[in-house]
Known about the structure:
- The complex is a heterodimer.
- Chain A is an alpha/beta fold.
- Chain A has helices at about 10-20, 50-60, 85-90, 95, 110-125, 135-150, 165-180, 220-225, 310-315, 330-365, 390-400, 425-435, and strands spanning about 70, 130, 155-160, 180-185, 185-190, 190, 200-210, 230-235, 255-260, 275-280, 290-295, 300-305, 370, 380-385, 400-405, 405, 410-415.
- Helix content of chain A is about 35%, strand content about 15%.
- In chain A, α10 crosses α12.
Amino acid sequence: MSRYTSVTEQDLEQMLATIGVATVEDLFADIPPVLRLGRPLALDEGLSEQEVYGELRTLAARNVSTEDEVTFLGAGMYDHYIPALIDSIIMRSEFLTPYTPYQPEISQGGLQAMFEYQTAISELTGLPVSNGSVYEGPSAVAAAGYIAKHHNGRKRFVISRGVHPHAIETLQTLAVGYGMDVEIVELTDGVTKLPELDDQVSAVIVAQPNFLGAVEPLQEIAEAAHAAGALAVCSADPIPLGLLEAPGDQGIDVVVGEGQTLGNRLDFGGPSFGFFAVTQDLVRRLPGRIAGETRDMDGKRGFVLTLQTREQHIRREKATSNICTSQALNALAGVIYLSWLGRRGLVELGELLVQKTAYAREQLASLSGVSLSHTQPVVREFPIRIEGGVDKAIAHCKAQGINPGYRLSDDELLVAITEQRTRAQIDSLVAAVKEALV
Amino acid sequence: MSATEVKRTLSFTQAADDEKTIYQRSKPGRRAFTPPPLDVPERPLDELLPASLRRSEAARLPEVSEPEIVRHYNRLSKRNFDLDTGFYPLGSCTMKHNPKLHERVAALPGHAKLHPFQDPADAQGALELMWRLQYALGEISGLPHVSLQPSAGSHGELAGVLLTRAYHEDRGQHRTKVLTPDTAHGTNPATVTMAGYEVVKVGTDADGNVDIEDLRAKATDDVACLMLTNPSTLGLFEPQIKEIAEIVHSVGATLYYDGANLNAIMGICRPGDMGFDIVHFNLHKSFTQPHGGGGPGSGPIAVSDRIEPYLPRPQVVRRPGTGGDVGGVSSRPPTPNRSTNGEQWSYDLDYDRPKSIGRLRGFQGNFGVFVRSYAYIRSLGAGGLKEASEVAVLNANYLLAKLRQEGVLEYLPAAYDRLCMHEFVLSGAPMKRELGIKTLDLAKRLLDHGVHPPTVYFPLLVEEALLVEPTETETRETLDDFAAMVAEVLREAKEDPEIARNAPYTTPVRRLDEAGAARNPVLRQQL
């Protein structure tokens, strides 16, 4: 008997008798003998809990985490501080172990949290409606494309090179199924300059700030998209949105993004969550779960999953998406994080990032052999140019316990600053890059 | 007993008033966050980020202190029912115990604080864990090539159908249809549409199996794939699976395995041996990732040799050589591996896959889920996985027999009167006709008994369906209690059906107006 099952010898005997079969084997009579495996799986036998812990600990120790080095890596996921209260709440069994809230009367905690989360996302994005979460950032971009396809029936997505490369590639993968073409617009001076848009453009997709950290002129982009009859879609980074004008207020129709920075671990890339907000017009095309407010039969306020006629379990082949399980627990961490920061805290954090990032950018750019790839305003990330020297800089920094950033190419490095990076750490990065280039 | 005298068995917090939202607790000036000090020279913000780019008004997030946040969400948590508290026989969802060790190992800093763009040479433990999980899933499914990238079952399905498309198109074949049984999960047809195919439904015969003649008629050479769940969503093993595979393969189509029901067959038989080409796993079902109230999940896929070239990229690969020496496939300088591990292997992410369908998402997948599922597979081992499936099937058949013994099947007959696998379907049609309560009423009344009801109204082809999946981690006593509870609800309904029709009574809120919620959507707090 494994430690997770509890059938004793006596139980087994009585259970088989109740069923009316002689052996467990008899329960599998429908499986043709020729299909039986007939041997044990070629996997090791089970281990005690402490042995499993030991093995996992050994594996974990072979990774260099953000605790083991000073990291300036970002490029889509960032080393922000996660307050202790998040774990204390999301590790509660009542949030950790239920399924999707199909029975709302016993799921009010999760449903209300989802409603609160939707409110926070609506505030950040400047759009009236958010869903309860999608998988993560890049696939959210592709899901936004699916909305556009059905909204206007056009054939082509125009996506900025400033959108995360994983999002561009994900859109390309899914566009094959959608029957859509993908056109990529290169950046000019670090930001998106749209070409002439024709009447086959379904959606224009940009990022805010973009992959190179620059703040995009969203209003101009939204106007150009709308003038051509296309939807304007923006993949946004939620912490900078605390400072930047809300995309929805600049005319963007669909705002999606990666939610990791909102209280979620790096976890080598997942699980995190994707957020997804739209204008009122597009509500019935949203993918995934949405919590809505209602009343119970005694008149008490309650929450339910709503507008379910969009979803796969009701609409099947006509659904707005195939998504079922999404990222409820990660979105819960997101709304707790935003409540922790609070209205003023989100702005203060954003301002802190702008100041620290400006300092790091200035210090690095002052080095001989280093220049800025663009001079657009940034919030917490920026690329630098080190002609032919990026690998050398990375190697030299790594030897000193510093991870200097994301390697864009032989010549360019993307540096991210979070509130966890101190001036002393930034100075040591600058010193290490300087030494590398001597 | 009247509707007002119902027994109270739950211990939910029942506030007399509406539970406030976090926004309704907000008061200007309160805060939980103390920013770290600004330790660089401060510059005027307008110089760095012009006012024209900034918000004029801050996002209206709540203003609350730490104790308020903690109390608020702890209060909310008590308004949830959860698997750690009670029985959760939600069919098709495999609500098995989530071992506590898994949270501990997932939280190790080497896992939780590992950046996804870390140099592979500095992420050898994570890549090795992923490689080992791939290997294990390949062995369990009998399909050796695994991608861990998809984020959930439906995402795995989408990967699978896009793989099918890539496979056919690589052969110059343009196919237009995908077959799904009428019993399929809703995700199957929704996926087919997203992948650009037309859905063609295949019928079910009187025994609950795929209607072979219908399949034969519809398996034409414009069919790209048949998506099948085996055991089916009716909880029945498809005994003609070999013949089905032959029919599908004879027209050049692929056979896709929806792994939602894999918990019935681990170590007993394998989709690859049945003739499936592609399978997805739900790590949040068979492999114990906690469901989190609707995710995160993870939906790895395993495929046969002929599909392998099209797998998403990057792929985790293992290469001979000591740690850190990535054998010339990377332009990055080798970094010394910091472990003293003696294995002569190194692990890397392989992007060089010219026929790949590409990425389905960012980074490498839901790694935190991989850690938990890998820990589970190591805890159980080959024998334990098989035992898990055996006991899952034993528990399901026992519960069905127990319900029969209790007289429940008189009103809720099994949709198909044969041995089931890990779950079974009852039909509430006679109950509705004779006792005047619907399956929904039964489910709502069960809430008052302190259990989560089974899945209701799925599969669609069974009238008033109730899909029951007890899982292997429940005790016999729990199953006995549940059978008695269902019998009690029926007995009570015979006396007074109004009790069930108005249930639940003991929950934080009572039956909710779902139609009203959809008619006048209120989807955020008005501020």
